[in-house]
């Protein structure tokens, strides 16, 4: 006969085991992005679709933040995945994590669009922009990429507020020096110095990390 | 500004990746990237450093239209790879039969000349890319003592990357050697490799590896091109359909 205490301990233990099993199963079912990129390079359309499903929300969020327009962001996302299909064979696991590679393709496409715009014509909504930075915990499956993200965040924190703010405006919102200067209400020359100094310090910090 | 100063170049690379370099300065920097591999490397390093920051941007759901448009752009005219979602087969001969244009024709010429000029090869493989187009013809010479690798339909060059040939048999992947990106390559075969090459289901793959690193025991990049090894004179060979 089992005591109530023992039974409840056992239930708790089983529950923990089940939860661990579910997490394990969830991990094993989680698409491995490197494998999906590899299969995409071989022309596997199903893997390409999985890759799209696994990364579309992250990449679309990045495009939407940079382009500030759903239509443009969706077109940029299309272009991004067309490039991914065509250039998957050039991905090298020794050079970058798969998500880093995918983000770079998406950002480069969005920045091309941003650079082609003659003027910064997007309406600015500070509150919305802040809301689009996700400070919530991110799933553990992305731990390697998150370690890299944490390293950048840690190094960003070592910068002066003015340097960090200017770099983040430029990086997340695709703003030119003049636009960053206007947003921050600082002279253009000051903003240029702050960004350049901040990037040099960021590099030094990341190389030490 | 001294644009040969490494510190200045690194700063420009950082500004380019952040997205803040614009106008004429950006256009000039992009022209410099096109011709300067070290500068390309600087840009890649900054991309690797900064891209993880973008993981902090909140996710957002695109509309269903996006995937439909991607499919239309890539596959509507049948120019994509396999329709069943699997790895494309090495169905080069059917492509040739269907008259798939100059590239396939050049392959026939290359293969015919190759087989005519090199005495009695025993095996060959046609390695195709993600769009099922032939990229390399591989065959043996000297009674399986050497492999000859001929690029067809353009070179394999990519900045900082070197093409590497691998033999895949079952669960084993064996390095065969680095390839010249734009020219013929000859690779020696020892007895175990030539035996493995003749095994049922043997395949050759090419990956693009970091050229600054020594050849490793396993590929570190996905296959760029692949194809099954066929034995000439063997019933499983498809060569008889051509000759």
Question: Topology, please?
Answer:
The complex is a heterodimer of chains A (209) and B (243).
Chain A: H1 4-29, H2 33-41, H3 45-67, H4 70-87, H5 98-116, H6 126-131, H7 143-157, H8 161-173, H9 177-184, H10 188-208
Chain B: H1 6-18, H2 23-35, H3 37-50, H4 65-75, H5 92-97, H6 102-117, E1 123-128, E2 134-141, E3 146-151, E4 161-169, E5 172-178, E6 185-188, H7 191-197, E7 203-210, E8 223-231
Antiparallel strand pairs in B: 1-2, 1-8, 2-3, 3-6, 4-5, 4-7, 7-8
Helix pairs in contact in B: 1-3, 2-3
Give a quick precis of the structure.
The complex is a heterodimer of chains A (209) and B (243). With 209 residues, chain A is mostly helical. In chain A, 76% of the residues lie in helices and 0% in strands.
Structure description:
- The complex is a heterodimer of chains A (209) and B (243).
- Chain A is mostly helical.
- Helices cover 76% and strands 0% of the residues of chain A.
- In chain A, helix 2 packs across helix 3, helix 3 crosses helix 5 and helix 8 crosses helix 10.
- Chain B is α+β, with helices and mostly antiparallel strands and 243 residues long.
- Chain B is built from 7 helices and 8 strands; from the N terminus they run ααααααββββββαββ.
- Chain B has an 8-stranded antiparallel sheet with strand order 5-4-7-8-1-2-3-6.
- In chain B, a hairpin with a 5-residue loop joins strand 1 and strand 2.
- Chain B is globular, with a radius of gyration of 22 Å.
- The interface between A and B is large, with 81 and 61 residues.
């Amino acid at each position: 006969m089992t005591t109530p205490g023992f039974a409840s301990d056992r239930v708790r233990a089983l529950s923990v085991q089940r939860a661990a099993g579910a997490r394990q199963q969830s991990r094993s079912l989680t698409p491995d992005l490197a494998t999906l990129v590899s299969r995409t390079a071989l022309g596997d359309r199903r893997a390409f679709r999985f890759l799209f499903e696994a990364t579309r929300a992250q990449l679309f969020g990045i495009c939407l933040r940079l382009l500030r327009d759903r239509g443009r962001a969706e077109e940029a996302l299309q272009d991004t995945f067309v490039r991914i299909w065509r250039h998957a064979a050039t991905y090298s696991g020794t050079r970058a994590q798969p998500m880093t590679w995918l983000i770079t393709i998406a950002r480069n496409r969005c920045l091309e669009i941003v650079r082609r715009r003659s003027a910064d014509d997007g309406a600015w909504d500070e509150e919305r922009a802040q809301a689009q930075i996700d400070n919530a915990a991110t799933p553990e499956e992305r731990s390697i990429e998150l370690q890299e993200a944490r390293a950048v965040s840690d190094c960003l924190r070592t910068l002066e507020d003015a340097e960090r703010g200017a770099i983040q405006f430029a990086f997340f919102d695709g703003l030119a020096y003049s636009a960053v200067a206007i947003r921050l209400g600082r002279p253009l020359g000051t903003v240029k110095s702050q960004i350049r100094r901040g990037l040099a310090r960021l590099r030094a910090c990341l190389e030490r990390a | 500004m001294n644009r040969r100063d490494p510190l200045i170049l690194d700063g420009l690379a950082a500004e380019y990746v952040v997205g803040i370099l614009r106008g004429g300065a950006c256009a000039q920097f992009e022209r410099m990237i096109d011709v300067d591999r070290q500068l390309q490397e600087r840009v890649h390093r900054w991309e690797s450093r900064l891209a993880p920051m973008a993981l902090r941007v909140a996710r957002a759901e695109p509309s269903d239209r996006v995937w439909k448009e991607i499919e239309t752009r890539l596959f509507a005219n049948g120019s994509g790879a396999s329709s069943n979602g699997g790895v494309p087969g090495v169905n080069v001969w059917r492509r040739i039969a269907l008259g798939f244009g100059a590239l396939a024709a050049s392959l026939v010429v290359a293969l015919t000349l190759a087989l005519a000029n090199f005495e009695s090869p025993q095996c060959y493989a046609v390695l195709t890319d993600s769009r099922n187009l032939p990229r390399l013809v591989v065959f043996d010479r000297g009674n399986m003592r050497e492999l000859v690798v001929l690029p067809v339909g353009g070179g394999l060059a990519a900045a900082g990357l070197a093409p590497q040939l691998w033999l895949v048999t079952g669960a084993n992947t064996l390095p065969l050697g680095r390839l010249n990106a734009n020219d013929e390559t000859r690779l020696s075969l020892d007895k175990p490799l030539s035996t493995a090459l003749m095994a049922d289901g043997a395949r050759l793959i090419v990956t693009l590896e970091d050229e600054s690193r020594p050849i490793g025991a396993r590929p570190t990049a996905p296959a760029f091109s692949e194809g099954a090894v066929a034995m000439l004179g063997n019933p499983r060979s498809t060569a008889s359909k051509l000759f």
